[in-house]
Design the sequence.
């Protein structure tokens, strides 16, 4: 080959989930594997009206190059939104990104050297592992329970560049950190001088009660916070944001500029036009209601069908159940049998930086109707009983 | 500071141009400094109609997550477009990127190790220097004349990961490589085993005759080719593409996925909807005509006003004149005097990887009317005569 690749290229890999999804994209299959929000929640009418207004009122600005920081009014909106959940940030600290995946890439670019220790939860979000990998970190998993990372577990992360944490309805585990755990975690991180990167794509999707205030509200100098419009509006617009302590902002901005100059101006103006007058206050509750019903359906189906020895959390928000099969069962080996029966899931091993638990799997409840959830879980239970127990 | 930054962060810098533009953003100033296309060329009506159709006919797909490779029909379109300029590529080799700036970032990520030699033209595109910088290359400038890089100059690039070249109406110099130079350059690169990264944002903006076929059409295994919709449609949608030899495609795709999952689905469908039926065949000629008139105005103004000892090319396409002031004049020192008189330009030193020529500057002719171009150049000449000669 003519081209010599960079060493880091060896650390990049095709997404295992992507590969799995390819196999499972059989027509008619009940896929509980995806990580997509339900397209039924996309506010198409509002988007259409907003697109028309933006292209009528400010077409030249919406279609022209723009500032790398992002569209001013949208940055202001984000600062206001975060104030509502207890974070005091200035709009100047908000960097609009091309989805929050780009936020993870920029964080990696600015903070990770080859060989740097980076601590992650166990399990953790696969997209973050992919974003960090090209920067060649040495990943360390922090021990977790149903409440998130154990504060005493942070000791293995001593000297790490940061701990990457998803306190709200984590992908994949669905868990949400309690108030007490957040306080203890931040206290321990502060004591260790361990900065945090807090990822919060699902925080608004709570079913009963809003989650406790973000980690960032507890340690303003030590937390980089990532947010997203993908789950409350639509992911296809690729719109997220990073909020950083002021000393980090210039480097993140330079990294952003080098990465894609700026996030599409049209998309930023479009989203701002949709949300500026409080649209999310009426829209997000409709998503919550829909997802809650689907969560309930999946819970009922799991209780009805799963054989003894299986365990699962009941997520109080977000999009995912996390299932532990009986010890010794390998979810990866179970998958083809499940697909044969007509349903798909994602084996949990993909979500671990190290020491994967082969008997875990992730189930999404948001893109499939309650009836199909019931059928899908019945198929999963059947496949499990016939092939693995 | 709590956060320890990666070593590469020291290589990232604020864009000098950005800083200059801030200073020159005085109301009423005649700015020939920008690198923006003229918003008068944005096909607003066509965008509005297309946005309506996309949100009517495929809202769920346009607003949902999508494949990292890009929207299939758009990739097909790109492959067809390139065939028209003599490149034989399959749609599977086309990766849609968030502007071609992202293409540069992905190329850097996949091909540059810390300390790798990377060859660039002299001068070269500043955005590429910024995109490559975080990967810590050792940059080598290849000697150039009005026709582009000198084939014999490539010897200094021996062992480099690639030569980054802009054959068509280069930003900043405006120059276009002749047919003979392209042939000689590729021949020499082949002999040296030096891969090429060919950036072509301006190729469609020719004024009299289309430029010769791309370098990529002459060495299909050794050239990564970057294209963009920013200059022929609108940059605010951030839509570009990378076309790579097949062995490189998987790693570029993985890098893309890690960087932002995918380019906004809505933007890809919107642009495809605008261009699918041959829109560019009637639209691009209107841009050419407009820019040609502005090029002519600037040429006439330069001839009329500039004192002896100044030299410039006459670009046969693109957006820029490149001006050499008399030896000993420093364009950076001239800038405040020019701004005081009411006009702005970009000092040329910013565009060199090494050995900057302080007596050079870049002038954009596309965002300012012929009358204002005449006034701006008169001010520049005046500032030069009174302060630097």
Sequence:
């Amino acid at each position: 080959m003519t081209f010599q690749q960079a060493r880091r290229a060896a650390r990049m890999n095709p997404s295992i989930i992507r590969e799995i999804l390819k196999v499972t994209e059989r027509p008619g299959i009940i896929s509980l594997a995806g990580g997509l929000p339900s397209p039924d929640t996309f506010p198409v009418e509002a988007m259409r009206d907003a697109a028309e207004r933006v292209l009528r009122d400010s077409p030249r600005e919406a279609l022209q190059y723009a500032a790398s920081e992002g569209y001013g009014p949208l940055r202001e909106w984000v600062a206001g939104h975060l104030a509502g959940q207890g974070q005091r940030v200035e709009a100047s600290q908000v960097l609009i990104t091309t989805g929050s995946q780009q936020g993870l890439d920029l964080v990696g670019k600015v903070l990770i050297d080859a060989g740097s220790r980076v601590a992650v939860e166990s399990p953790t979000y696969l997209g973050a592992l992919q974003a960090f990998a090209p920067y060649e970190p040495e990943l360390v998993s922090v021990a977790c329970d149903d409440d998130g990372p154990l504060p005493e577990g942070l000791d293995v992360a001593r000297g790490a560049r940061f701990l990457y944490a998803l306190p709200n309805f984590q992908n994949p585990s669905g868990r949400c950190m309690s108030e007490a755990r957040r306080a203890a975690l931040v206290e321990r991180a502060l004591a260790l001088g361990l900065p945090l990167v807090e990822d919060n794509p699902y925080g608004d999707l709570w079913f009963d009660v809003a989650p406790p205030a973000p980690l960032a509200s507890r340690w303003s100098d030590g937390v980089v916070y990532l947010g997203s419009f993908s789950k409350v509006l639509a992911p296809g617009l690729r719109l997220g944001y990073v909020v950083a302590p002021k000393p980090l902002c210039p480097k993140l901005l330079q990294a952003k500029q080098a990465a894609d100059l700026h996030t599409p101006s049209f998309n930023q103006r479009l989203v701002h036009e949709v949300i500026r007058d409080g649209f999310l206050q009426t829209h997000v509750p409709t998503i919550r209601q829909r997802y809650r019903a689907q969560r309930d359906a999946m819970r009922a189906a799991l209780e009805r069908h799963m054989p003894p020895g299986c365990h699962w959390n009941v997520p109080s928000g977000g999009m995912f159940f996390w299932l532990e099969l009986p010890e010794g069962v390998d979810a990866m080996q179970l998958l083809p049998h499940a697909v044969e029966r007509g349903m798909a899931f994602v084996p949990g091993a993909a979500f671990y930086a190290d020491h994967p638990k082969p008997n875990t799997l992730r189930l999404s409840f948001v893109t499939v109707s309650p009836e199909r959830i019931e059928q899908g879980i019945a198929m999963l239970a059947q496949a499990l009983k016939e092939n693995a127990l």
